[in-house]
Amino acid sequence: MSAVETAAASDAAARHLAARADELREKHGRLRELLDARGARSIVLDGQPSLAWLLAGARVHVSLAAPPIAHAVVDHDGITVHTTANERARLVEEELPPGIEVVAVPWHEVAQRRPTDSGQLRESAVEHELAALRRRLLPAEHDRYRALGADAAKVVGDVLRAARPEDSEALIAARVAAGIVELGAEPLVTLVAGAGRVAHRHPLPGTGPLGRRAMVVVCARRRGLIANLTRWVRFDEAPRAERDAERRILDVEAAAFAALVPGRPYSEVFDELRRAYAAHGFDRDEWGSHHQGGPAGYAGRDPRLGPGVAGTVEAGQAFTLNPSAPGVKVEDTVLVTGDLGQTVEPITVDAEWPSAIVAGIARPLVLER
């Protein structure tokens, strides 16, 4: 590497560290406001979404099926991460932003996660407030999210562009999962349904062939943020009713997108989505057959929209809606831009994937093979 390249790499590394430090300060400030509002001295964060959010996407897990291997104690003065001695070096060297104190205990001792006095909050006591703090994604988080969304969409696109009707669901899932891992991301959800199983809304991959059409669903996590998308491929001429349903489910989604306006309650977004089913020729109660998605970011849905769910749409927030009906579904992760003329910006976008403009927004079509 030349001296110029070395200097450029050094400058980029310095900017990266500075950006992470700025992000940490902003989030620490939000938590200080929460402590003041609650009259508390500190808070213990031990949930995956909250830790990933606070620590700028640090990987604080080993097993995806287990709780985090660390927790954070946040007070007005700073942030202290508690972990076991065997995890400390990796976290400090590879994961944590600068400026965080790390306390380690022997691996055979359980780090204390419970409040030690009445002035220390449990995360579970303020989970709704923490979800509200996570809504306002920072510009650096938007950049990370857009990059992940584009990468994940291309992985799925590349796999389906090479797929064949005789390929098994398991083979397609393996190829997608391998591609996601190669991105430096984690495939939290990989679903595949061949033609005989597309009626299932959460089709865990089986061993049967794809057949004439197939659906792939992916939730990929990188630096804490989770990108969610669904794509379809078809290998023959579609019946008219199938194409009609595919078009109408995009209209249902468009009605919900139009409701994603900063300041609008989640309840109104959900009501617009619920009513859109009947307005576009589906059963009026179809929304009850599967969850409809909701705010996204550091959790798959943070929370899912539904009757009585509280919250308000904010500019810069991420959403993943997933309206569906028998044999059809649409799903992408979007940012609420608040820009005039276009409320949402899809970020799980593959430039090579076929699309159509629906209510002013490019939406994915079925890949015809």
Topology readout:
Elements: H1 3-38, E1 42-45, H2 48-54, E2 70-75, E3 79-84, H3 85-95, E4 101-105, E5 120-122, H4 127-135, H5 139-162, H6 169-182, E6 186-193, E7 213-222, E8 225-234, H7 240-259, H8 266-279, E9 293-296, E10 318-321, E11 324-325, E12 328-329, E13 332-339, E14 342-346, E15 355-358, E16 361-364, E17 367-368
Parallel strand pairs: 1-5, 3-4, 8-17
Antiparallel strand pairs: 1-2, 2-3, 6-7, 7-8, 9-10, 10-13, 11-12, 13-14, 15-16
State the end-to-end CA separation: 45 Å
Strand arrangement, major sheet? 4-3-2-1-5
Secondary-structure element string: HEHEEHEEHHHEEEHHEEEEEEEEE
Fraction of residues in H or I helices: 25-40%
Radius of gyration: 22 Å
Shape: globular
State the total count of DSSP E strands. Answer: 17
Mean pLDDT across all amino acids: 93
Number of helices: 8
Strand content: 15-25%
Structural class: alpha+beta
Largest sheet: 5 strands, mixed
Low-confidence stretches: none
Write up what this structure looks like.
This protein is α+β, with helices and mostly antiparallel strands and 369 residues long. It has helices spanning 3-38, 48-54, 85-95, 127-135, 139-162, 169-182, 240-259, 266-279, and strands at 42-45, 70-75, 79-84, 101-105, 120-122, 186-193, 213-222, 225-234, 293-296, 318-321, 324-325, 328-329, 332-339, 342-346, 355-358, 361-364, 367-368. The strands form 5 sheets. A 5-stranded mixed sheet has the order 4-3-2-1-5. The protein has a 4-stranded mixed sheet with strand order 6-7-8-17. A 4-stranded antiparallel sheet has the order 9-10-13-14, with helices on one face. Helix 5 (139-162) runs antiparallel to helix 6. The model has no long low-confidence stretch (mean pLDDT 93).
